[in-house]
Write a structure and sequence with these properties.
The protein contains 11 helices and 7 strands. It is globular and about 55 Å long.
């Protein structure tokens, strides 16, 4: 009989290398481990990994992002760490989970799962010749974060995961997920590295005819300071923001950012400001 990890590896993207496939397994095991601690009763799953695991987004995503269902400025991840480690180790994995202490206090609480890459390879791909090329000090990390002061008006849905076992996960619904992605696309401080992944996800929502939760988007934009408190936010205002953003993007940098996360590099060949402005006309609001 195959082990749970063997079955999970079969469900990962066959076009990815072994290290990325291991990360996918660890993401699922972390999500399951968090479910055993009661964390998922208080927090909703959102972001790119949620979109990939539950809605078929065809790009790899790195982190697990959560949002409390109700603001709680005293929330801490500490009570959930021992149970998460116990769950992960029950699958034969040597892992450590540590909370990230930040110099500046923010509304995002972060933790890292860390495990020795060579030991993971020996556990999951024991006969792979590439193991000898991995240095003993290399570490595989999975970051998960939770927003403890989420903006209002998000809607939720409960979906079932089957890896490694059957368990429920509360997620933002698709229009609310899209609102979060639009907020990131419009407001993220990209500096010298344009997040082409945001643009790729934007096209995923558009191609799947997902409407935007406008109330939640407005709340996010106001919370992050991307729009003034006294402005009137409507579809016209949003479209103007999007046009201005697309005109400001270095699309060559955007393509370079996303290319290693997708299987088909030709998918970004047509990216430019005019094409994104044109496709934005298909945006639906709710």
């Amino acid at each position: 009989m195959k082990s749970e990890i063997e079955r999970m590896l079969e469900h990962t993207n066959p076009n990815k290398n072994e290290k990325d496939r291991i990360r996918e397994v660890l993401q699922n095991l972390t999500l399951y481990g968090l479910s055993t601690t009661g964390f998922l009763e208080r927090a909703a799953f959102y972001g790119g990994t949620a979109l990939r695991l539950f809605h078929g987004l065809d790009r790899f995503s790195e982190d697990l992002d959560f949002s409390l269902k109700e603001p709680d400025m005293d929330f801490t991840l500490d009570p959930f760490i021992p149970g998460l480690e116990k769950s992960l180790r029950s699958f034969g994995l040597e892992v450590d989970v540590s909370i990230r202490n930040k110099n500046i206090e923010t509304n995002i609480k972060s933790a890292f799962l860390k495990s020795n890459t060579k030991e993971l390879m020996l556990e999951m791909y024991p006969n792979n010749d590439t193991i000898k090329n991995i240095v003993r000090t290399e570490v595989t990390k999975i970051k998960f974060e939770v927003d403890i002061d989420p903006p209002p008006y998000a809607n939720y849905e409960t979906l079932m995961s089957t890896d490694p076992y059957l368990f429920p996960v509360i997620l933002y619904d698709m229009p609310s997920l899209f609102a979060g992605k639009l907020n990131a696309m419009l407001c993220r401080g990209w500096k010298n590295r344009v997040k082409g992944r945001d643009l790729y996800d934007f096209l995923f929502y558009i191609s799947n005819d997902v409407p935007v939760n406008m109330r939640h988007l407005e709340a996010r934009l106001r919370q992050t300071g991307c729009i003034d408190d006294d402005c009137t936010f409507d579809s016209t205002y949003l479209m103007r923001m999007m046009v201005d953003k697309f005109k400001s993007i270095d699309f060559d940098s955007a393509k370079k950012d996303v290319i290693s996360f997708i299987d088909r590099p030709e998918a970004v060949d047509g990216w430019n400001a005019d094409s994104f402005i044109k496709v934005s006309e298909r945006l639906r609001l709710e």
